[in-house]
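Researcher: Next sequence.
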Amino acid sequence: MIIPTIRPTILQTIIDPLNPYGGSAIIPPALRSLVLSWQDASKLSAVYYGLNQIVTNGNFASGTTGWSAVNGTLSAASNTLSVTGNGGNLEVTTYKSTSTPCVTTHKIYVKVKIRVRNNACVKIYTMLHGNTGGAYLTSDLVLTPTQDAWYTKSAIITLTDQTGNIDVFLRHTYADAATASGKVMEVQEFMAFDLTAIFGSGNEPTAAEVDAILAAEAYWEGTRSVLCNPSNKYFWYDYSGNSRHMHMSNLAYAAGSNLDSTYGFSVDGVDDFATITDSAATRLTTGGTLAAWIYPKSLGESDAGKIIDKSTAVAGANGYSLNLYTTQRLSTNVNIGTALLSSNNAITLNKWQFATATFDGTGRHLYVNGVDVTASGGGETALPPDVAGVVCTGNRAGATDRTFNGYIDKPAIFSRALAQREVRQLFNNSRRRFGI
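Model: Next structure:
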């Protein structure tokens, strides 16, 4: 996985992500080696990624340099490439070779501003190919485009069996070769990025998310370090040292939070969630600890809003789960089994609290603000199986039917069951950030 570029003047000299107060560290030094994942909202403004534009002269400042045509001719003026059909075929193409290698399963984002100067065009589409072989991969951009209307379109294409370097194509299509003759397509600002190379496998943003990143940026060549995401904050950086990112879906920060981790991120009780990719370590096959600061507005969907979940079914199947439950309880399941339940009213709505679950081969515990609130199921000793799966925050892994409703901050996973004194230390080291 690619580690994002962190601007040290922002992240390292102003604030230590594990010690934001300049006093006792949130994660005590003795526990840092146990941290598998630790996300902190307040540092997102310091996370930058190097977006490497793989297409040179995509704004046509150098005219037609590097671009070629099939069944057509090229010309360029005022940063606009014109592709004119010559009657050789019903499809008129412009293409460009890149120096970016084809890697199977890599996701390639493409974006273009484009129009046709006629009313006979059937379709505009983009295509990727390996310059030494493999299938041609296509994505429709505009069907039956309107004459002279500019379209700004993006798409993500996943590489399969392509070999060599990536070739990028743009085509406009007509009913037949005769109709295509003399018809013009104009192109501006063609951009392409290998998202997998930039963000890491499993962490690639959607086309809409990349659109949002680029909305605040002017066109550029080469590599530029940009905040991801400057408007909606789709990524948190994982400060555990494991080079993971939390990929946030449909999530937004609380209004007025100004990236203050007191507010964490807002989960709407409908379909929000965030994930980190699977790793052998986060399967917790020998036990572990799940912890997060939570501000529940309700108990969430089905009165069982998920705080942290790594499973293939509702009750922690093939993994584990920490969630809210009826009568304002905490609940934990490990690979289905008997639920570990807290006492009634252990959770307070509309208030910040530190929720923690620990489990290993000897027993389980639930804590709120460092206080053991275990009521039943504490003697369960089953452990998660070694089954792959993402870790989800704010919802059930693989579904959106157990959405948390409220705020979640500083979700953490530790590689062993922490003792109560250690849980209490975590609570004490961060409580004043949450006004407790």
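Model: The chain has five helices and 30 strands. The first helix runs from residue 8 to 14.
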